[in-house]
Amino acid sequence: QVQPVESGGGLVQAGGSLRLSCAASGRTFDTYPMGWFRQAPGKEREIVAAISRSGGDTYYTGSVKGRFTISRDNAKNEVYLQMNSLKPEDTAVYYCAARETFLSGTYVRAREYQYWGQGTQVTVSS
Predict the structure, then answer these.
(1) What is the CA radius of gyration of the chain?
(2) Cβ distance 82 to 66 under 8 Å?
(3) pLDDT tens digits, one per residue of 25-57
(4) For the segment 75-112, what is each residue's pLDDT rounded down to a tens digit?
(5) CA 116, 39, 69, 7 torsion: positive or negative?
(6) φ, ψ for residue 95 (rounded to 5)?
(7) 126: buried, middle or exposed (CB in 10 Å: 19+, 13-18, 0-12)?
(8) Which residues of 11-40 are buried (b: 16+ CB within 10 A; e: fewer)?
(9) Contact 56, 70 (CB under 8 A)
């Protein structure tokens, strides 16, 4: 079992950058594919980016490609989301999630993840 805890959210102007971190407890962190999701007010939770166990495979939703980068450090039990060129439409609560599976790869559906953090607010002002 793993418990994700996000940090690094905040208020930033459009065009700025933020780096989200997710620390996950557990000795087997490197067996969990991870994902970053976000949920804006009145909208459904959506995938932002996902990363495989080793970090060799990544996925990005179209609206963040070229601006966001997901990475992980299995030695530190952490996963990161570097967000550059932020836009007001990136404003949301960002969640880190872990999937327990014996399969490799990346996962993009919220229902595929069993463990969730509490979320961190990202607000981008225009």
Answers:
(1) 13
(2) no
(3) 877 888 999 999 999 999 999 999 999 999 999
(4) 999 999 999 999 999 999 999 999 999 888 999 999 99
(5) negative
(6) -120, 140
(7) exposed
(8) ebeeeeebebbbbbeeeebebbbbbbbbee
(9) no
